[in-house]
Amino acid sequence: MKEVFNPDLFVAKWYCSQVGPENMPQFAADALEAGYDGPALRRLAGLIRPNSREIGSLFQEALAEIGATRIHSKNQAALFLGSLTAKAIVDGQMDPIEGCSILSHYAVVSGYQNALAQFDQLDGALSWGEHAPSKRELVEDIIREARKLLASVPD
């Protein structure tokens, strides 16, 4: 089953360097398929293996053609992707220790926003030697912090 087109997800991944210029044609094609249209979207969709120079301002123009997106900065992107990861942890769809490592990365990307900073401290806690929490305690801490993150982020 194909995912519903979510421009915020792509924009967040763009800001967090999880997608690159080579992903732009598919993004634009997905937008066109979802019913959005405009010259920049059509031009992006037609590019073959584009680089950053070829993308230029087309991406911003394409976003304007799509309309309102909620993600406008690296911090917003990290928080958006972080909340998706936290939800996966809380819902039991992601291993909490693996999710904590991902959330730690988003903490770094965001400049250690309050909502994410705790995950950087929890990441790698099992390697703290005699000061390390048990794995069970660490998982409980991660899930608790993931719930706090979700409570702090507006829908």
Beta-strand percentage range = under 5%
Give the overall pLDDT as a whole number. 92
Ranges with pLDDT <50 over ≥5 residues? none
Contiguous helical run count: 9
Order of helices and strands: HHHHHHHHH
Strand tally is 0
Helical residue percent?
A: 55-70%
Radius of gyration: 18 Å
What structural class is derived from the secondary structure elements?
Answer: mainly alpha
Shape: elongated
Subunit arrangement of the protein: single chain
The largest pleated sheet is described as: none
What count of domains describes the coordinates?
A: 2
Termini distance? 25 Å
Question: What do you see in this structure?
Answer:
Helix content is 63%, strand content 0%. It is mostly helical and 155 residues long. It has two domains: 60 residues, no CATH class; 79 residues, no CATH class. α1 packs across α6 and α6 runs antiparallel to α7.
Summarize this, please?
By secondary structure, the protein is mostly helical.
Q: Secondary-structure map with pairings?
A:
Layout: H1 7-15, H2 24-33, H3 39-46, H4 52-55, H5 58-66, H6 74-90, H7 96-109, H8 114-122, H9 135-152
Considering the chains and any ligands shown, give keywords for the structure.
155 residues, 0% strand, 9 helices, single chain, elongated, 2 domains, mainly alpha, 63% helix
